[in-house]
Amino acid sequence: MESLALHSFSTATTTSFSLSSRTSLCFRSKPITKSSQPSISPSFSFPTLRSPLKPLLFSPLSKQPIPKPLLSPIHSTSQSDNTPPPETTTSPPPQGAKLLPFIISISIGLFLRFVVPRPVEVTPQAWQLLAIFLSTIAGLVLSPLPVGAWAFLGLTTSIVTRTLPFATAFGAFTNDIIWLIVISFFFARGFVKTGLGDRIATYFVKWLGKSTLGLSYGLTLSEALIAPAMPSTTARAGGVFLPIIKSLSLSAGSRPGDPSSRKLGSYLVQSQFQCSANSSALFLTAAAQNLLCLKLAEELGIIVSSPWVSWFKAASLPALVALLATPLILYTLYPPETKDTPEAPAMAAKKLEHMGPVRRNEWIMVGTMLLAVTLWVCGETFGIPSVVAAMIGLSILLLLGVLDWDDCLSEKSAWDTLAWFAVLVGMAGQLTNLGIVSWMSGCVAKILQCLSLSWPAAFAVLQASYFFIHYLFASQTGHVGALYSAFLAMHLAAGVPGVLAALALAYNTNLFGALTHYSSGQAAVYYGAGYIDLPDVFKIGFVMALINAIIWGVVGTFWWKFLGLY
After folding, report:
1. Is the pTM value of this prediction over 0.85?
2. pLDDT by residue (tens digit) across 154-176?
3. Can you tell me the distance from the alpha carbon of 53 to that of 407, in angstroms, rounded to the nearest whole number?
4. CA dist., res. 351 & res. 341, Å (int)
5. Which residues touch 427 (CB under 8 Å, ≥6 apart)?
């Protein structure tokens, strides 16, 4: 919740974008964080091996200062020296809601409420809440206001119109899953602040980095290793892996926005971008949207027992096959010009030497995350819910000074996620309680019966529809909030086993994060690095989507049958 958009590491790399701003991503050179936040760049950059000007001194991740012009601007001699220069006035940025998206979002709800006839099976209260919910979802897609602000307007509307009482409208703010997501953002900040994630990735470069393909596998495996304890794909991309990729690429003479980008950087960025989708799908705690999916499934009565273990068992074989296949497939479809990187292990060793021994805060981070993951796996045995395990971990980090409260307060993405997703979860739960979801399920069941589709055929059609409709979304969690419950209800109406449907939709939510340059927070991070061209993003994204569908479809079919999911 890395769309949470739920979902990003910093305010500069959020996972939620308006549809009108997607093309603006091509102007972003790289995501940057505010100075008040810890830098996501590593403290030490790999040395440049082939820089003609300053070998071994150029830091690839630092900007060179722009020299001042030698000559000052020439002014007209007719002007007095005392005459002040003409002032240039710039129009202030527009404030408030964007008019057209606002009108469209509101019109959708008003049209349903006052124009579409209400079915006799649906109560007036439920119909009115559905209208408010649809306007809220439309606003999340069209972005007349920031996500959290628009969700708050929807919440206010539901109370002002007396559709929901105050206590009911705010009931989801005490939801344990949502607070688990919030705390996961703080864990991700701890990984970046201590440098632990950077150190782990650098070790894999040292061990596997003698060739470009080995380098890609080293980065891929290191992300899979830290993913369950760093539950933000965007934070992993911007805080750990992109800085390493940029350092390695620049040291090999591969520069962004330049034909030399195809030497090394383009391939490493594409490979890491595509593999991140499968790393996020492998573990329940690898991405915030995973937890949201299971919470919404629970609202529809689908309870996954031992969720961390069940999720990992079902995802393990198809995800691992995809992780092992993706770098090799891209090595063929999108080959780098540089095949061998014999300098990379030595550079990684030099960086590790510069980093020094593992510091106190890194050891605390390791111990805390091992404890948290252990409790996530075995917590039910001891009667410790997942959110309590996360609270224990965060408390340890605060008590021992690894994080301070300002770190938590400055993690705006966490608080934004708490605000807007609590609104969506609360509305979705009330729609279920008021009978809207059951009514929609019945309608879908009748349509599927008319088409005479078996449940496996309906499963394939609905999964493909859920996946490719993400071209219209700029946030994974926004997609989850808008469509997950509806598509899960359609699966159930078609006779698909509940746990299978819930998990498959959740896995799909991670896989379409690598579809476009705006499909997720990590997509914006990797595309903003400047190493991959926009046509290549769409082409590789579509091709890898088909390959992932084949891997997960074929391997998953046999594996899930073996596990008894159907």
Report:
1. no
2. 999 999 999 999 999 898 888 88
3. 39
4. 16
5. 129, 132, 133, 136, 154, 158
